[in-house]
Amino acid sequence: MISRFYKSLFFGRRWYLLFVATIALFVLSYGIPSLFAPARLAVMILALLTLMDWVILFSRPQPVLVQRDLPEQFSNGDQNAVRLTITNLYPFRIAVRIIDELPDQFQMRNFSLSCALKGEERQILTYELRPTARGEYFFHDINVFIRSPFGLIVRRKVLDAGRMVKVLPSYFLLKQYELLALSNNLAESGSKRIRKLGHSMEFEQIKEYVSGDDLRSINWKATARKGGQLMVNNYTDEKSQQVYCVIDKGRIMKMPFNGMSLLDYAINATLILSRVALIRQDKAGLVTFADQIGTFLPAGRKAKQMSHILDILYNQQTKFQETDYEKLYALIRLRITQRSLIVLFTNFESLTGLQRQLPYIRSIARNHLVLVVFFENTGLHEIREAPAADIEGLYIRTIAERFAYEKRLIVKELNQHGIATILTAPENLTVHTVNKYLEIKARLAI
């Protein structure tokens, strides 16, 4: 009981300043005896004020109420708002400092919030957290430090507020792209517009010709039966095409950019691309692999398909072995029999690294449309743009240029074999991937 009391009681900065001033008076009273009486009086006044401050602060067993409001899940890579509602139960003004014990993953050792509350006033404090890894995040206790108008004593109150929050792939972007897909503005939301070439061959109906219809769609047999009234075939976009997102979980996807690994960027893009494909009436599937095949989710567009994809992506982690493309080819050959769009999220840092895996990628491309998505090294871009101050700087800049040139060679090599590619900075991955999917749909390439 006594130890708990001492843990909840601290002297404030103002008390220490007054205490030092009192000691200074006693020291000076050795040379100036007339200061001895004021020094004794100062000690008595300080003791009395300290006692009064203690009585005021500890008169209530529950001095303040603090409620932490959290969303059910956090969105990985996005700013997530956390709200603290503080209510002052004292009838007088207090100063409050709050230390919220954040999850260990954030590594924020000096996080605190401060405010002043009038008697029985309520305030709402908001702060934002940006997680950079998926998983379970545990919030711990809330520490509240309270000072009265005297400011001599600080009362500490520890409030039990432990809670676990799951950090899921970026569902903020998912909602944004879902609205764009529903409003048919996805092509305009990216970096370029997609011009649709021709029309799909999925027949919908025969209708009367109106000005502006494609003359090539005239149905002459139906026109003859109508006695000369021009009739045209009406087509609609092909649906139920299979789109598989294939995620490489090998060591090359462990590389970090802006606090997030390449795997996290690929997972966020996969989540959004799958949702867009489902909205466009296509079937979405998922494959993860490293040295072994991780997860295979057959393509589908049932109501629960999106929740299945989210559950799978939530727990995916990189491995430190080299990826085995031979096993990936065997899986696709055996399990994916219908021609599909295979979006392969991986990374190649050198042309030699690509050439080891190219035979398997080419084998997959014989039966499917393969889109290889890999990443620019934005750190090398900064080195290339920086001026070289000496010979060492020039050498480093030359090496950076060489690596960037290797990336362009990888794109050229894949294109020569008829394999579509996206080379993008990690932060632009989602936009470029969705745009490429729309372009492929518009060109009827699947």
Q: Layout of SSEs?
A:
Blueprint (H helix, E strand, L loop, with lengths): L1 H6 L1 E3 L1 H17 L6 H22 L6 E6 L3 E3 L4 E9 L5 E7 L12 E5 L4 E8 L5 E5 L2 E6 L5 E7 L3 E6 L2 H12 L3 H4 L12 E7 L11 H6 L5 E6 L5 E7 L7 E2 L2 E2 H18 L3 E7 L3 E8 L4 H10 L10 H11 L4 E6 L5 H15 L3 E7 L2 H8 L5 H26 L3 E5 L4 H14 L4
Helix pairs in contact: 2-3, 4-7, 7-8, 7-13, 9-10, 11-12
Structure, described:
With 446 residues, this protein is an alpha/beta fold. The chain has 4 domains: 2-57, no CATH class; 64-167, Immunoglobulin-like; 171-195 and 238-442, Rossmann fold; 202-236, no CATH class. Helices cover 38% and strands 27% of the residues. The protein contains 13 helices and 21 strands. The protein has helices spanning 2-7, 13-29, 36-57, 171-182, 186-189, 220-225, 262-279, 305-314, 325-335, 351-365, 378-385, 391-416, 429-442; strands at 9-11, 64-69, 73-75, 80-88, 94-100, 113-117, 122-129, 135-139, 142-147, 153-159, 163-168, 202-208, 231-236, 242-248, 256-257, 260-261, 283-289, 293-300, 340-345, 369-375, 420-424. Helix 10 (351-365) links the parallel strand 19 and strand 20. Helix 7 packs antiparallel against helix 8, helix 7 (262-279) packs parallel to helix 13 and helix 11 (378-385) crosses helix 12. It starts with a helix and ends with a helix. Residues 187-200 have low confidence and may be disordered.
